[in-house]
Structure formats: C-alpha cells, structure tokens
C-alpha cells in the first residue's frame, strides 16, 4: 500500500510539473494566433505573465481558433470538434471552421499496436487471430483501426486506443479546468457562459469516447433497435472488447461521399435518403438512442446496396421526458405557436432569470422567417441550430442531448440532400408526427403514465397527514417555524468578500495611523544631532512600516478589484 501511495504521489507530482510547463504554452499559442484580447477579457493575462508581452491583436474568427487548436494537439482538436456542436454558444462563423478539424494522425508502428492487442486479449496474437493487417484502415488522434480475422474466419475491425494518449489528455483536461476556474473568478464573460461546466461536459464526452466498452454498448443498443432493412449496424464482439480495444464485424464498403453517390441510380438514392432519414428520426423520437455523428465518413455504401452505420463514439440518449419535450417543441413549431414554444424552451433550463415576454418576442421574430415556408421545405437541422442560438442569447442552457439532436439532424440532412435534393427531413418529421402522437396517446402509454401519477400521488398523500399535524401543533403552540434556504451565488460571495476586504483595509489604515503617530511623537522628543540611537531606530521603523503598509495596501486593492 505504501508503494502504491508513493507512486500515486509521484504521478501527481509529474502531472503538476507538466501542468506548469504546458499552461504557458497553451496561452502562448492562443496569443500567437490573435487571441490576446480574449485572454485578457477572461482574466488569464494577470495569471500568466507571458501574455503581458506585446502581442499583435487581430480580429479573429473561427479559422484562427481552428489553427490554434490544431497546433496544440489531439485534446484541443477534440475540444474544437466539441465546440463546433455548441451552436447555442457560438455563431456559425466560429462553429463551421471548427467542424472542419481533421481528426487524423500518423499511424503508430505495428509492433506497438500488436503489443497492446496481446495485452488486452491476454494471449498472443496467433492464438485468437488468423491474421492482422499491419497497414491500418485509419489512424486518428485517439484510436487506430486494423483489419483482422478471428480463428473461425470471421473478418473483424480492431480499434486500438493509441498508447500514451491517456496521460496527455488527462494533463490537458486538468489544465483546461484550472484555466476555466481562473477565468470564472476573474471574468464576468466566463461566468455568463459557465466555462467550467463547458469544460466538464467536454471532459465527460471525451472520457466516453476513449472508453471502447461504452462505444460497444451504444453500438449494440442501436443494432438491437434497428428496424430499417436498408441500414446495417455491424456486430460487436464483447468477449474481445475492452476499455482500450474494440472488436467489431468488418463491413466492406465505401464512404458515402459525392463520387460514390453519383454512381447510384435515382431510385436507389431516393430509397437510401428515406431509409436514412426515417432511421435517425425513429432513433430520436421513439427509440431514444441515436447516432449523433452521421456524416458521410461514418456511412458506408456496402456491396449489397445497404448503408452501413459505423463509429458510435458519439451517441446520444434521450429520456422519455426529453423525447416528449422535443416532440412538443416540433408540434408547437409546426403550429407556429411562439407562446408555447417559448415555455418549452424555458423548460430546458436557464442559467439566470429570463424575461418571458422578450424571449417570446425573439422566438416570434425567429419564427417569422419561416411563416411563408412550408415545414416540408425547411432545413430542420439549421432551424434547430438557430433556435438554440436564440435560447443561448437569453442564457438558457440547452441540454447537451438536445444539442446532439440538432447536430445529428444537421449532418444527416446534408447527406440526405446530397442523395436526393428533392427530399426533406422536415417533411418526414411531419409524417412521423402522427406516429409519435399516436404513441403518446396509446392506451398502454396512458396506463403507464397513470400508474406513475398515482404512485407519486400516493407517496405525497402518505406524507401529507404528518406534515399537517406537525404544522397545526406548531401554530397551536404559538411557535410556527419558517425555514428559508439562501443559496450564495458567485456574485453574492464576491460582494461579501469585497466588503470584508474593505473592513480589513480600514482597520489596517487605522492601526497604521496610530503606530505612525506614536513614532512621530517619539521622534519629536529626540534631536537628530543628539547622537541618540532612538531617533534613527524610530526613522527606520517608520520607513519599514510605510513599506509594509504600501505592500498590504496594494495586495488588498488587487483583491478588492
């Protein structure tokens, strides 16, 4: 146990040293790409002296941010991809360049990959594989994929997490959290956007993506619920899958990009467009588990004409309540009901009080842009992104699951339009609305909701007599109790801290005045040429006290500021 604790302390020490070296480098790269103004606004310039040097300010946009993130490495490239989905926080001029971040990396040597595979499998490669190709099918910043075959001849794709990537990501995420904490202490902008919460969400998403067991579980969930015969989800082999290694069925096909789409007949393209649209809509509104990143690179046109859906590292899940809330939003949108839609948007959660009238006004203005357009002709993905932006402008926190829905709609819609320009995801939403509505009023669903309601009502009714009896006894005894719970937010704590600092400063100034008055009185009783040491001692004491007072005064001033 002692050895493990020592090793843990040593690892923590190494991480802290790495943090001290890495943090200035991160801020320096952002400053180099023109973000010195943002660094100052976030309160980081005072904490990292490097940024105080002269740096040329630029009118930066998403393209400069993309370059900075690429220079900083895999963790920050993932951060850029994550931020590209936060259309409730960033405008398209920022999110679109970030969405172009390429998650590619040089291939790792096969010997290093082979060693990891053997460690994860717990046996030599030849004992459970017929072969494993040395040339990878793809190499990304976190994982690398190789084609192989099991002993029974089944061809598989093996995805291995890159060796040595865990401490790099852990250190970078730790630094991001520290910088976010500093920014929220020093910047109102950082507090408004909840910067620490954004980094926490990013860290959680990255942790899920790095855990291949979770990806395997999500892929199996989608596969089990798949009802569309034109869409195929490869089989997962859980007996060989670990946290660092994913083994799944190899499917032969080509990415669904422009040149591949152009080779298809019009009827095939229409069938695939409808199959893909209905699959994603069913996953979102009915199944509650959906592929959140259905871009062409994750869609393969298989040799038998079906679409293969791969890479489930970014998968969303919606509870029943969230599915109902989302469908209600779409029903309100279809009816052009801004009042209902504003109430539903508020249910998503607000970071601070929201003026409902102004929110409803802004939603009405946003909706006015679609009044003369049939819902079937609307681009659903882009429309949801705009709605999230309106909500974000009112400090309403859009749940990450809804943000994933918006991104899934946006990406699948782009693919569907490329397959069949005449098709529309919004039109299919309208067609599916009937099925969703009938499902909500189905006798089984209504019976389930009734049971839930009466269960909660029974629990409340059981507690009610005791609460009433206790309340009446208190009133009869003339000692009613009123309990209040005050939550001290950051602004309140800062005001209290500033008041305390002012009080302490006043006490220090009073003490300084008394001490200096005593020193001057003692100096007045001595002659500077009398040869007495008392005068010199008093003079030195006055100088030292003045220096100490000015130092404390400066530190207190910075604290109050």
Key attributes of the depicted protein:
alpha+beta; 561 residues; Kinase-like_dom_sf; 22 helices; membrane; disordered N terminus; four-stranded mixed β-sheet; 3 domains
Give an overview in words.
By secondary structure, the chain is of the alpha+beta class. It is 63% helix and 8% strand. The chain has 3 domains: 128 residues, no CATH class; 186 residues, no CATH class; 91 residues. The strands form 3 sheets. Strands 1, 2, 3, 4 and 6 form a 5-stranded antiparallel sheet that branches. A 4-stranded mixed sheet has the order 5-10-9-7. A two-stranded antiparallel sheet has the order 8-11. Helix 14 runs antiparallel to helix 15 and helix 15 crosses helix 16. InterPro entries: ABC1_dom (IPR004147), Kinase-like_dom_sf (IPR011009), Prot_kinase_dom (IPR000719), UbiB_kinase (IPR050154).
**Shape assignment:** globular
The total domain count is 3
Low-confidence segments: 1-17, 50-56, 527-531
Q: Any idea what the radius of gyration is?
A: 31 Å
Note the gap between the termini. Answer: 47 Å
**Largest sheet properties:** 5 strands, antiparallel
Q: Overall pLDDT, averaged?
A: 79
Our count of helices gives 22
Strand content: 5-15%
> Which structural class is indicated by helix and strand composition?
alpha+beta
Tell how many strands the DSSP assignment holds.
Answer: 11
The helix fraction, in percent, is 55-70%
